[in-house]
Amino acid sequence: MLRNAPRHLRSWTASGIKYVRGREPIVLIALLLVVAVSWGFIELADEVNEGSTGDFDRWVVRSMRQADDPTQPIGPRWMREVGRDITGLGGVSVLSMLIAAAAGFLAIHRAYRTMVVLLVSTIGGIIVSSLLKQFFARPRPDIVPHLAEVYTSSFPSGHSMMSAVVYLTLAALLAPVLKHFWVRVYVLGLAVLATGLVGISRVYLGVHYPSDVLAGWAAGLVWAVGCWLVARRFALR
Fold first, then answer.
1. Position 34 in a domain
2. Of 8, 109, 180, 208, which is the active-site residue?
């Protein structure tokens, strides 16, 4: 079939096949993930701007509170403190300490290029998160009292995005330093778990809608995977 195709089409096809063959499957999966999640973020942002997620968002936030008293979250009384402790894992102060600790770890191992990529990617992700908040400027949930202090707008969730950016980027950049396969899987699993718990805690505390958290996860994942691809390219060079 290709023999009968126009010359420029045969050339494009051959270039595409060569491109695919020159990449590992994990890189192609990462590229596909970036495209798919980016598209999902755009679609979700569009739905939020149109107000299509309003009913679902309010239902989820309200379901996290007791039916007879919206000031009290569901679960035992100590769960409120647990939620605040977990949400702190996505705060700027905690994440900054983690970034500094990881940078020191890489410096000790003389992985200076990886350290630079880590600092640029994580700090850049935090800046992007702030810019996205200012751009969308979505009001915070007002149907239940907030159980944590908030100072910025709601969409996307900064804690969710920053935790995804920092934890997933840290795991992706530190994994090659770890020798054993299951240790790398364990570290990546912890990063995913921490990111997920931080996002859930934001809804539990009544300071974010679930769509805010989903958008934060999506944007953070795209940023982390993109930074990993860049770091991988530098490592191969």
1. yes
2. 208
Identity of the amino acid at 211: S
In degrees and rounded to multiples of 5, residue 87 shows phi and psi of -65, -25
Give the count of domains, the chain.
1
159 annotated active-site: yes
Give the residue ranges of DSSP H helices in the chain: 7-21, 25-50, 54-63, 79-88, 92-108, 112-136, 158-163, 169-174, 181-204, 210-236
Asked whether the beta carbons of 83 and 205 are under 8 A apart, the reply is: yes
Q: Is residue 1 part of a domain?
A: no
AA letter at 3: R
Domain span holding position 169: 25-236
Q: Apex CA 101: angle with CA 99 and CA 106, to 5°? A: 95
Per the residue annotation, which of 8, 146, 159, 180 is the catalytic one?
Answer: 159
Element (H or E) spanning 199, and its range? helix 181-204
Tell me the pLDDT tens digit for each residue of 78-91.
998 999 999 999 98
Output the pTM of the full model. Answer: 0.80
Query: For residue 95, which of 51, 128, 126, 50 has the smallest C-alpha distance?
Result: 126
Q: Is 208 a catalytic residue?
A: yes
How far apart, in whole angstroms, are the C-alpha atoms of residue 221 and residue 161?
8
Instruction: Tally DSSP H helices, then E strands, for the chain.
Output: 10, 2
How remote is the C-alpha of 162 from its chain's centroid?
7
